[in-house]
């Protein structure tokens, strides 16, 4: 046996040993294969070995054994579902950096769909968002090269590159007659997971761009500063999860818990019932029981849908916007020898009511489609009673003119129709509570103080 043949046999032996180990694990978990099935597995491995040797010997260009094995792993995992994949050491490191909140690239969350790359959502304040990339866009070419035949990891790898370098994406967009060619400049993506501000002096606005390790600390800061700015005027919160592609499950659970006193948040069910689990809220509501409007759209996926489903089923928030993406599966990361990593779909998650949103998404309680407010260009000014000659004066005094700051805030809101409607909804709820109870909503008794309030007062 020559050296080359010995190396090939060693590779196949290693693969067969790995499969044998998997069979032992399966048997230990009560899912052992029959002898006939095991024999068939070894036959299929022999087929793999034959094809492997054929490619090594006859493919038009020489390929390393390492690269061929990597391709085989990618093919096996990506054929299972769009979210399972193999990552080599370099890709695994990039994944780790991404989850900590800083990485290089375009700032775009993608998946594979029918042989092309589908945009789940662009991330706020990134090259993709600035260039106008939209949820649902289909990327068919990267720098003029078709993505057909590429794995998802390969496509993502091509979109990443040297900071400052340019990349050309060819995109098919619904409603456009011809493909769009968009040039972007790569940048270091520093994700600020949580953004917040006070709208109209009495509405707390919290925007979560994605769920990473920075999310829950960012939420604590948001609640603290919104309370400080709005004080007793605070009437409720808008939680903006639009174009949030998801992220870490534990962060989604923590954010849901921020708004809930009790109740189930999410349950996950895998292949083995022993692995099923459910997560529940702990006592305390960091929003002090104030009304919450949760904004979602087609770019809200995975962890975003976990939060929205938990708040909807626990009747804690009004879900507004449009149908969410519909990713109801859980991926687990497994380290493998050589520094690589396997991302494998291991479970489905369910909302507290027991519904799966896989391939369906979260349906809003109130559908608010994106729209633009167009000013009424009436050349004739509106005439009021006070403009008439001899009009009686108001005995209580003259009306107070609008402040410029209020007008500027109205212009900002008008640019985001969905957010404008969410704020109007909170204002209406506050007015209704005030009129029906005789007590302003802002002074209604708060729910049990959150056990983590001490963190807000640090």
Describe how the helices and strands are arranged.
Elements: H1 3-28, H2 35-58, H3 65-78, E1 85-87, H4 89-100, E2 102-105, E3 108-113, E4 116-122, H5 127-130, E5 138-142, E6 145-146, H6 152-159, E7 166-172, E8 180-185, E9 187-190, E10 194-199, E11 203-208, H7 215-230, E12 236-240, H8 249-259, E13 264-270, E14 277-280, E15 292-296, H9 303-313, E16 318-321, E17 329-335, E18 341-350, E19 366-367, H10 404-414, H11 417-437, H12 453-456
Parallel strand pairs: 11-12, 12-15, 15-16, 16-19
Antiparallel strand pairs: 1-18, 2-9, 3-4, 4-5, 5-6, 5-7, 7-8, 10-11, 13-14, 13-18, 17-18
Keywords:
single chain, 458 residues, alpha+beta, 2-enoyl-CoA Hydratase, Chain A, domain 1, Pdz3 Domain, 3 domains, 6-stranded antiparallel sheet, 35% helix, 22% strand, globular, disordered N terminus
Low-confidence stretches: 3-7, 17-31, 440-452
Largest sheet properties: 6 strands, antiparallel
CATH class of the largest domain: Alpha Beta
Q: Tell me the β content.
A: 15-25%
Number of strands: 19
**Average pLDDT over all residues:** 86
Number of domains: 3
User: For this entry, what is the oligomeric state of its chains?
Assistant: single chain
What is the CATH architecture annotation of the largest domain? Alpha-Beta Complex
Radius of gyration: 27 Å
CATH fold name of the largest domain:
2-enoyl-CoA Hydratase, Chain A, domain 1
Please tally the helical runs, counting DSSP H or I stretches of 4 or more residues: 12
């Amino acid at each position: 046996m020559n050296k080359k043949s010995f190396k090939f046999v060693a590779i196949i032996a290693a693969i067969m040993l790995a499969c044998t180990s998997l069979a032992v694990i399966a048997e230990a978990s009560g899912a052992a294969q029959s002898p006939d099935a095991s024999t068939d597995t070894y036959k299929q491995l022999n087929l793999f070995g034959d094809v492997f040797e054929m490619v090594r010997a006859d493919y038009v260009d020489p390929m390393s054994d390492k690269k061929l094995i990597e391709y085989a792993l990618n093919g096996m995992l990506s054929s299972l579902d769009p979210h399972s994949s193999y990552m080599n050491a370099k890709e695994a490191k990039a994944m780790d950096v991404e989850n900590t909140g800083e990485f290089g690239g375009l700032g775009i969350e993608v998946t594979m769909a029918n042989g092309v790359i589908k945009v789940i959502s662009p991330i706020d304040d990134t090259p993709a968002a600035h260039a106008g990339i939209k949820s649902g866009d289909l990327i068919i070419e990267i720098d003029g090269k078709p993505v057909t035949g590429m794995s998802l990891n390969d496509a993502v790898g091509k979109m990443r590159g040297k900071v400052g370098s340019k990349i050309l994406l060819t995109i098919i967009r619904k409603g456009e007659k011809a493909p769009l060619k968009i040039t972007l400049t790569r940048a270091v993506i520093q994700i600020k997971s949580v953004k917040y501000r006070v709208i109209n002096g009495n509405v707390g606005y919290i925007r979560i761009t994605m769920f990473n390790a920075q999310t829950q600390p960012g939420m604590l800061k948001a609640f603290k500063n919104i309370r400080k700015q709005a004080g007793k005027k605070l009437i409720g919160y808008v939680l903006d999860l639009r174009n949030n592609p998801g992220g870490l499950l534990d962060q989604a659970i923590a954010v849901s818990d921020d708004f809930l006193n009790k109740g189930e948040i999410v349950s996950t069910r895998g292949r083995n019932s022993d692995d099923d689990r459910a997560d529940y809220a702990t006592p305390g509501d960091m929003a002090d029981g104030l009304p919450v409007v949760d904004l979602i759209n087609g770019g809200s996926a995975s962890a975003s849908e976990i939060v929205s489903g938990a708040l909807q089923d626990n009747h804690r928030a009004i879900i507004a916007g449009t149908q969410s993406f519909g990713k109801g599966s859980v991926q687990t990361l497994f380290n493998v020898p050589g520094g690589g990593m396997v991302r494998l779909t291991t479970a489905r998650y369910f909302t507290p009511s027991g519904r799966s949103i896989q391939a369906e998404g979260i349906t809003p309680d109130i559908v608010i489609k994106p729209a633009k407010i167009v000013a009424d260009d009436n050349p004739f000014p509106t005439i009021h009673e006070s403009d008439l000659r001899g009009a009686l004066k108001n005995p209580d005094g003259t009306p107070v003119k609008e402040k410029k700051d209020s007008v500027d805030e109205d212009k900002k809101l008008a640019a985001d129709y969905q957010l404008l409607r969410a704020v109007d909804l909170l204002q209406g709820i506050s007015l209704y509570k005030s009129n029906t109870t005789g007590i302003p909503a802002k002074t209604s008794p708060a729910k049990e103080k959150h056990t983590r309030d001490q963190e807000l007062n640090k």
